[in-house]
Please model this.
Amino acid sequence: MRLLLKGTLALALLVAGGASAQAPPPQPDYHPSLADLMTTAVQPRHTKIGLAGQARNWVYLDYEVNELKNAFARIGRTVPTFNGQALAPAIDARIGGQIERLAAAVKARDARRFDAAYADLTDACNACHKALNKDWIVIRAPSRAPTGQSYPDQVFGAGR
Ligand code: HEC
Model:
């Protein structure tokens, strides 16, 4: 009888142990910061649009400029305020027009208009970083020649 009890206890412990291994404790929700979203959702698209623009790949540009626009819209919803400022209106005011003009240049398949609009877009990135006190985040057009740098649209040197 003692033996049977011991055996049952051992089995119960084994089952409980197995069950806890199968059901991990719940994880807290992940809330990306504005910097997380800039690095993952905005920066790669800015780079890709620059490189596809140099290749005049209008079909891809149609798609990717729209992706950038939608990414900014999602960022405004995901991070409602930054340093106490409403973010969605700041995005609209600081880069909304530049994205629209870029999209229009792509629709028109106009290379010169595209180049000017892309330069304006990049200026808008930097103007917002300055306005929100992050002037050390410096964005540029990615260079056509391979630079060996993993983030070709960002300036890392201190002496800019
Ligand atoms: C509405 C203002 C605004 C606009 C427009 C904007 N940014 Fe930002 N960005 C910020 C702020 C503010 C931060 C810093 C966030 C933080 O520190 O949490 C940031 C951070 C970043 C970072 C992270 C820096 C790093 O090295 O980790 C990158 C990269 C970046 N932005 C790229 C861009 C690019 C590219 C564009 C233009 C297509 C752009 N941003 C447009 C406000 C803006």
